Amino acid sequence: MSYQQMIFVNLVVNDLAVSKKFFTDLGFRLNEQFSDEQTASVVISDTIIAMLHTRERFAQYTPAGKTPADATATTEVLLTLSARSREEADMLADRALASGGSPAREAEDHGFMYGRSFTDPDGHVWEIVWMDPAQVQE
Length: 138
Description:
alpha+beta, 9 strands, 32% strand
């Protein structure tokens, strides 16, 4: 098996139980091996893991003097996931809104690219984007 680089996105959450429910309602699973009472490891794909931390736990990983961002007041990052189709983008965004997320922006349709966005219960902005493979050049 060849090596696949992974990304671990570390996010501050205000209520770990609410955040765990939100992400499992979206269809993602928790990796209990790397979860505890202050952290939840959310498996988005084989190579993408969202590490959800209480504010106290997250602060342990930040440089001295730096305060963890409040995503309800500032946008620290835009998190974008790809979708296999427009329908999958809509399904995931609709599921997020039904599970406690909020709309971030209107849907964007550029013909070859389509996207929806939402904020999770902690204010982090997530985008779901489909691109027509026939139009994407590598």
